[in-house]
Structure formats: structure tokens, C-alpha cells
Amino acid sequence: MRATVIYGAGDVRVEAVPDPVIQRPTDALVRVVRACICGSDLWPYGSMPDSDTGERIGHEFLGVIEDVGSEVGGLARGDLVVAPFVWSDGTCDFCREGLQTSCRHGGLWASNGIDGGQGEAVRVPQAWGTLVKLPVAPDSALLPSLLTLSDVFPTGHHCAVKAGVNPRTTVTVIGDGAVGLCAVLAAKRLGAERIILMGRHADRTDLGVQFGATDVVAERGAEGIERVRELTGGDGTHAVLECVGYRAAVETALGVVRDGGVVSRVGAPQYQDLPLDFGTFMRNITLTGGVAPARAYIGELLPDVLDGRVEPGRVFDRAVGLDGVPDGYRAMADRKALKVLITP
Amino acid sequence: MRATVIYGAGDVRVEAVPDPVIQRPTDALVRVVRACICGSDLWPYGSMPDSDTGERIGHEFLGVIEDVGSEVGGLARGDLVVAPFVWSDGTCDFCREGLQTSCRHGGLWASNGIDGGQGEAVRVPQAWGTLVKLPVAPDSALLPSLLTLSDVFPTGHHCAVKAGVNPRTTVTVIGDGAVGLCAVLAAKRLGAERIILMGRHADRTDLGVQFGATDVVAERGAEGIERVRELTGGDGTHAVLECVGYRAAVETALGVVRDGGVVSRVGAPQYQDLPLDFGTFMRNITLTGGVAPARAYIGELLPDVLDGRVEPGRVFDRAVGLDGVPDGYRAMADRKALKVLITP
Predict the structure, then answer these.
(1) Which residues of chain A make contact with B278, given a CB cutoff of 8 A?
(2) Distance CA B237, CA B263 (A)
(3) pLDDT in tens, chain A (344 residues)
(4) B78 CB neighbour count, 10 Å cutoff
């Protein structure tokens, strides 16, 4: 089959790779119907050292089951399924607690001999614990929104949940990427009435407003902090959803969070340390968040996607075939595309 | 009157200062019956630059009301009261939310013209919002435990509450100072069944065991982390209560916290940055805590102290008069005393 392989910064190729086969009785084989490129794929795309062998890439996909191992219950050939961006057994204590990202027998896609999502097919380990069946046809118009259940929408939701967003919390979302916009959508869905979106790209923040943002702040750094404080009577907001991953974004978050409030981070950290100093201590600021256990949230979010009450799939503003994947990476890296949908 | 004044590192004096008087209608005048020295007083005692004028010090006291301003309701001459270590108006939004440490009209003792607690008397601003009446006589045997309601017991309690301690959480407490021991007591009171206390001073950890610690780990750093992990099947504990304030203590906390768990800090930060890096992100670790709004907790903790169900006053292992305060500082700094009680 064909799949995407990254060989270094700026060097993504689509090439022939071995066809996946069932290796363990807990595996399933999924023919990919839709996949996509994640903002986090841009980190290796921006900085990965050159590699002779390359590495598979991609961790968001939905598809049709072609085969299942003998121990995979509840799933059958022909089922349309979505895969969260971490695979997990569904039975260990962490999975039962809803922290499938720490599953004792789980792992990441596209590493250690596991297929990546940006290809024609994927061997799915721990298929019973990992995959969620989708009650629509494989040509449903809902596919883009359903695909966001793989990562970006649950990630925004996780960010909002960990921040304790509810109808009484004011919210700032930092970052107008696909995750930031999904965080707006998630905060709105959880009842937040005041959602300030910090982002500089008008086309993206416009979508953020449609998703529920009540204010947009284009300024950054100290100026951005001042602007959010002006909008909130000097206090900042109860919850701040940090959807970027740079230290500067967390610094902004700490600057716009209200005393006693929560900074929730889902941007993959591109930093070692954070300035959680005496000042943040005296203000009782909490830092929470982390990699989203998407699998834990799909059951809750799926009905709203199926009903069309939320349309997270609107974050996709470009669609490509497998051959168009390298162009898709370039477009996202150049900020010419917000998020790229792949139909292999 | 006489009160404690600090002139620099290692230089604490008891000297004549102006008698406090009611200045505003919201003030009360309190004759101090018991005060004490806090672990956080040791920070300026260890490092304060020399000062010609000196600064008042002390923020934990209980005493008898001598006079009240015209707008102070609910309190009268002769009442025995305890003061939390931050004064607050009790009416602003932060106070109503239970975050009196961020009160819009509150502040710290022993600064900006406000008396310190280690003296014969104190002018208490915002007395209605600040003081809590104690239903015992001023010679009650409960005074030491009641005095801990000023800071150290609510601080341990805040640490445990913010960490979400309950009967199903395993707990590590880092630090065998008075706050650490009170955190053990608070965790036990909240129902925790497994409480690992990290501390090197056997006399202190012995008291920790009496307060509810089930295991004691004397090792520090990587060795200490390994030991806690051994005790917890390799996973660490759900909650970690950091009661020291050094970066190394928070690093230990991050090393012994279970995936998805919470590090709650109440040790006053002697650091600028914390290593909340990619690893902590992938493990969904939360950092919370901060300066404790003691005032918010006194109502809940007081009945247990009055009943003798908890005896936080056992952290006092030395008692002095006002003249003995400099010796008290020295004894605490030299770790010859755990916590020093003052009877002015």
C-alpha cells in the first residue's frame, strides 16, 4: 500500500510500504477513508533531523474495518470506525479512569512498528479498546466532523473540561489553529457565555466567532494581556485554554488568568520550564491539561456531531488525495491552510 | 507596646513600637494571647538585606478584642478571636468565592503600616471579614491547636483540598515541617488511607505517623522518588502535597505523582521556573495550590479542633515569651525546634 513517510524537516513523501496484516488476535485492519494533517505534525515537519529510513506519520483517521483478529469483540468487517490519536486496550486501570493516553498496553501511531494514519490502511492494535464505531455510511457528509473526533475536537474539549469550563466561567482561548477553534467550540458547548479568542488570522478568528467566541484579541504578548484585562474589568478570565505550545503562549495565559483560575494546556510543549513563580503562587493559579485522552470523550461528543449541533469539521479548509499530502504539509506550514483533509 | 522587628538576616529584635489604635471604623484592636513563628518567617530570617529601620514580622495570632471600630459587626470587646494570615474584607467577590487571599481590599500583616502578629497587640483592618470568634476561654488548653487555624493547619488543608484528596486517593506529602505534618493531618481527615510522608527528621516524621502517615520515606531526590514508586507498584500517588518551596521539592513531586495526578504546592516558591515539560504534559499532570485562603477554611476546621478530633497544635514543640522570640527563630532555623509558640 501507499503511506506518508517523513524523512526530515520539510521532506514528506508518499510511497509504497508493506501492506498491513493482522499480527495479533487483538488487531484490526482498517482501510482509511479519511485522514488529516495535525498541527502537531508540523513540529517534526519543521525540525526533524534527516533520516535515511524515514518515519511513518499521521495519527488521525477513520475508515472501514477489513479484518479483525480473533479476540476483537464488538467490531466486524465493514464497520466504519474512528481511531483516537492514541491506541489503548480499554481494560487497564488508566483506561477505566478515562486516561487512555496512559494505557498500560497502548501507544502512539506511526512509531515502534505501528502504522501511521496518513496512508491507505492501518493495522490497529488493541482494536476493541481503541476504535469507536460510527453509525453512518462511509460517504456521509458528516465525515469531516466525525474525523475531528480522532484528535482535534476532543483535544479542545479536554482543554475546556480540565479548565472546569461551565456556564459561570469566563474563558480565554489562546491560539487560532484548529485546536484553538475546537476549544472555542467545546467551551461554548459546555455553556461558557464569554469566550475571548486570541489570534491574529482574521479568517480563522472569524470561524472562531461562528464557533462561539464573543471577543477576538489580535494583539500578542503584553499588549494582548492588557487587552484581555481591559475586556474583563482588569481581572482576566476564570479559564484560559492554551492551544499553542510555546512558552510565550503560556506566559500570556498566566497573564490573562483571573486569580484562583486555571490555565489548561493542550499545545504540545516546545519548552522545558514554565514561570510558575511566587506571583502565580500568591494568585492560586492552577496549570492543568495535557495530551487529550480522546477515546474517553468520543462517546459524549459523537451524538452532538451526528445531530449537527456542532460542526468541528469546518476547521478543514483544504482537501487532498494521498499524492497531495506533501503539498498539504507545505500549505499548513505556510499558514495557507488551517487543516488539511486527506482522502487516500 | 513591644513587638518583633526584623533588621536583616539572622537579626530579629523585640522592641518598643507605637501602641496600635483604631484608625478606621472597620478596625479592631486585638491584645495577642498566642502567636507563633512560621516556616515562611525563616525566608527573610535567612536572606533579608540589612535594614536601618527594620520591618515588623509575624502573621499568626489569636487574642482578645480590646476595641472595635464603629462599623465592625458581630465582634465585641472581650471576644477571643483568631486571625488568618491574610486580612480581608469578607464582602468582595473573591472573599465570597473563598479566595480571601485575593481580597480586593485585603492585605498582608507586618507590611504597609499594618502590625505584625509577633507582638503584644495588633490593629486588625477589615476586622469583620478577617477575625473568627473562638468559643473558648483565653486560657483554654486548646489554644495551640486553635492558633494553627491562623495558617499552618488551613495551609495543609488547602494543599489537600486543591489536590482533590478523598478516601480513594493515594497521597505523598513532601516535607516534614509543620505545614507538611498538617498536610498529613488534613489528608487523613479527608479520608486518605495511604499517606506517604517524605522527610528526614525522625522526630518529625514520628509525629507525622501519629497524624496519619502510613509510610515514611527518608531518602531524597532520585532515590526518594524510586522509593515512593516502589511503595506504589511503580505508579506514584494520585496526589502529591508539596510543603517545602524549593524547586527540588517540586521536581520530586513531579517524580512521584501518578499519571493524571495532581501536585499541590503550598511551600512558598523559592524558584522562578518549574519543569512542566513535554513529559508532564504527556502524563496529564496538574500543578495547583498556592497561598492558602485560611479564612475560607476556619469555619470547617474549627469544630474538629474544638472536639479534639484533630490536634494540629502538637506541631508546637517549644514555647517562649516575647523576649524569647529571637531564640525561637534561631532554634527553628537550626532545626532544633519544629514550630515555636509565643505567649507575649
Answers:
(1) 268-269
(2) 10
(3) 999 999 999 999 999 999 999 999 999 999 999 999 999 999 999 999 999 999 999 999 999 999 999 999 999 999 999 999 999 999 999 999 999 999 999 999 999 999 999 999 999 999 999 999 999 999 999 999 999 999 999 999 999 999 999 999 999 999 999 999 999 999 999 999 999 999 999 999 999 999 999 999 999 999 999 999 999 999 999 999 999 999 999 999 999 999 999 999 999 999 999 999 999 999 999 999 999 999 999 999 999 999 999 999 999 999 999 999 999 999 999 999 999 999 99
(4) 9
**What's the gap in Å between the CA of B126 and the closest CA on chain A?**
20
| Residue A241 parent element (H or E) | strand A237-242
By CB atoms closer than 10 A (0-12, 13-18, 19+), residue B136 is middle
Mutate: best of B86, B96, B259, B262, partner A, most A CBs <10 A? B259
A343 alpha carbon, distance to own chain's centre: 18
Which pLDDT does position A27 carry in this prediction? 98
Is pTM beyond 0.90 here? yes
Residues of B with CB under 8 A from a CB of A: 94, 97, 99, 101-102, 162, 259-260, 265, 268-269, 271-278, 280-291, 293
- Partnered with residue A340 across adjacent β-strands are A318
- Chain B residues with beta carbon closer than 8 angstroms to that of A99: 259-260, 284
Domain boundaries along the sequence of chain B: 2-151+293-343, 156-289
- Give the CA radius of gyration of chain B: 20
The C-alpha cell at A234 is 482588569
pLDDT digits (tens, 9 = 90+) for B126-136: 999 999 999 99
Interface of A with B (CB under 8 A): 94, 97, 99, 101-102, 162, 259-260, 265, 268-269, 271-278, 280-291, 293
d(CA A180, CA A241): 8
Cβ neighbours of A272 in B, within 8 Å: 275, 277
Q: Which residues pair with B194 in a beta bridge?
A: B170
B271 contacts A284? CB cut-off 8 A: no
Beta-strand ranges (E) seen in B95-179 are: 107-108, 121-124, 132-133, 170-174
Class of domain B156-289: alpha beta
For residues A65 and A75, the answer to whether their CB atoms sit within 8 Å is yes
**How far is residue B191 from each of residues B17, B197, B333, measured CA to CA in Å?**
46, 16, 33
Q: What is the CATH number of domain A2-151+293-343?
A: 3.90.180.10
The CA-CA-CA angle for residues B98, B102, B105, to 5°, reads: 105
Sort out which chain A residues have CB atoms less than 8 A from B291's CB and list them. Answer: 281-282, 284
DSSP B218: -
- Closest residue of chain A to B289, computed from CA coordinates: A284
Q: Can you name the CATH fold of A155-289?
A: Rossmann fold (3.40.50)
Pairwise CA distance, residues A197 & A187, whole Å = 11
CA distance A209 to chain B (A): 28
Do A101 and B282 lie within an 8 Å CB cutoff? yes
How far apart are alpha carbons A254 and A242 in whole angstroms? Answer: 10
Q: Best of A100, A168, A277, A284 to disrupt the B interface by mutation (most B CBs within 10 Å)?
A: A284
Q: Are the beta carbons of B286 and A260 separated by less than 8 Å?
A: no
